[in-house]
Amino acid sequence: VYAVQHVDTPYWVLLGFALLSGIGGGTFSGLMASTNYFFPKHERGFALGVQGGLSDFGTGLVQFVTPLVIGFSALACLGSGQVAHLPDGKTITYWLQNAAWVWIPLVALVTILSWLFLRSVPVTANIKQQWAIFGNKHTWFMTLFYYGTFATFAGLGAQLALLGNHTFAGIEGAPSAVALAWLGPVIGALSRVGAGQISDKIRGGRVTTIMAICNIIGLLALWWYKPTSVAGCWIWLIIMFWIFFWTGVGNASTTEQMAVLFPPLQGGAVVGWTSAIGAYGPFTIGMLLAECGAGVMFGVSTLIFVAILAINIYYYDRKNAPDLC
User: Fold this and answer.
1) 27, 48, 176, 201 - which has most CB atoms within 10 Å?
2) CATH code at 253?
3) For residue 259, what are the CA distances in angstroms to 35, 164, 230?
4) What's the pTM value of the predicted model, to 2 decimals?
5) Could you tell me the CA-to-CA distances from 143 to 198, 225, 279 in Å, in that order?
6) How many domains does the chain contain in total?
7) Chain-centre distance of CA 38, in angstroms?
8) Residue 243 located in a structural domain
9) Which structural domain, as residue segments, surrounds residue 263?
């Protein structure tokens, strides 16, 4: 709250806050791992889909709520507004601290509920037992699978507004990517919930195959297609939402595969590990976009899904597959 009200806040302070907020991401990874212990294998896909989907829904909620609340002076008594000077000479006042104040009651509530109702998993493991996952090739395959799906989901969720505004630049009457950015993560979150249950019924490997094909189609379309009209901008957004839908599906199917492939002790560690690696998505997607451009970013993402498709079909989703799941 204090830091965002002052433009002279040092960058290292902001990095410190990012480090502390990352503990929340680590908690999410740990809780995803714990879910394996509380559900039988045939229900884990749905349980992990609901848990991960609700978490992903928060991404869209933040993007939807933040632009609304920073425009109100209702909490002005808790901090002064900031003034922005626009290129056309106009000035606007906004209250960035509102975006922090609105979450404090929710965080307090979740803290109380966690203290009262969270249960520890009925299993303990030492570091050596958990590190054993890194000697299993399936750990690295699942890391690639989850990185490809979640990193693309989270990375595009973080970059959609900027990418859309850049793509639509110069097109009069183009839709606002900033106003619509929240829709992508929400679509992905909802598809993750549904795909978890479907993965339990028809196998996560089969869902992952379908997902990879659909993402390759969407990413190639974005790599090739350049909108030149308002209608074209909407087509571009629809393709982008298509990718959000299928990456959400992939988030669910790959976690279901992990729950089936590994025993609970290892499965929990693998889910936690892959969730942590997937969280690098906004960084890697953002770096590719900034350093190499959108075309390279979409091209690299396409190659990742091609690799996912090939590995998944060979090991997990073909007749006589060595690890059908």
Assistant:
1) 48
2) 1.20.1250.20
3) 10, 36, 44
4) 0.86
5) 21, 30, 11
6) 1
7) 24
8) yes
9) 3-69+120-316
